[in-house]
Amino acid sequence: MWNTYAQSAFKADAEPSFCWTQYAGHGPGPELLVAPVGAHGRGVRVRRGPPDPSRLFPLVREQLNPGGRFVFPQPPAIPGAYGPQGMYKGGFAGKAQFTYRYSYTPAVWERHLLRAGFATAEATVTEAPTPGHIGTLIVRAEAPVRGFILPPKG
Predict the structure, then answer these.
(1) Residue 17 forms part of a structural domain
(2) Label partner for 32 (CA 20 to 30 A): which of 26, 39, 49, 65?
């Protein structure tokens, strides 16, 4: 997502565009990624499917600099269907290709992030622009800002 935004942001004749939701021009923009100077970290590469959030989130947290942000969107959980869920890629025809995703209530996402060592966590659903359509769950967390020690005087 970030690469797509960055490519459009630096073309002289293009308006930057960045969508967290599945509805173009709806919802928050790149401001969710704005973090204090020096707060950016390194990426986390996942080699085999999406790992359990209780395993992934500590890895993400370790890669962030103090004050760095971790943000991700996904569909809200279907009521009563929580935890790991399998889904087919590309519809129901052709060669079987599947993936897993995790689905939780906003409060459970926040709990996973706080347990992983993030200082703050917030998960909210951005409603769709058309009433009754699927909204977007946007999850945000911030790494703790470590205090610093002033050099000794004199």
Answers:
(1) yes
(2) 49
Number of domains in the chain: 1
In a domain, 103, yes or no: yes
Between 152 and 13, whose confidence is greater?
A: 13
Within the chain, strands assigned E span: 69-74, 83-88, 98-103, 120-126, 136-142
User: 45, 72, 66: which is closest to 142 by C-alpha?
Assistant: 66
Rounded CA-CA distance 59/7 in Å is 27
pLDDT at 72: 92
Mean pLDDT on 63-67:
89
> For residue 142, which phi and psi values (nearest 5 degrees)?
-130, 135
Asked whether residue 150 is assigned to any structural domain, the reply reads no
Answer whether 61's CB lies under 8 Å from 70's CB.
Answer: yes
| Whether 77 contacts 105, CB under 8 Å | yes
Task: Note the pLDDT of residue 139.
Answer: 96
Range of the domain at 131: 2-142
Interatomic CA distance for residues 67 and 79, integer angstroms: 33
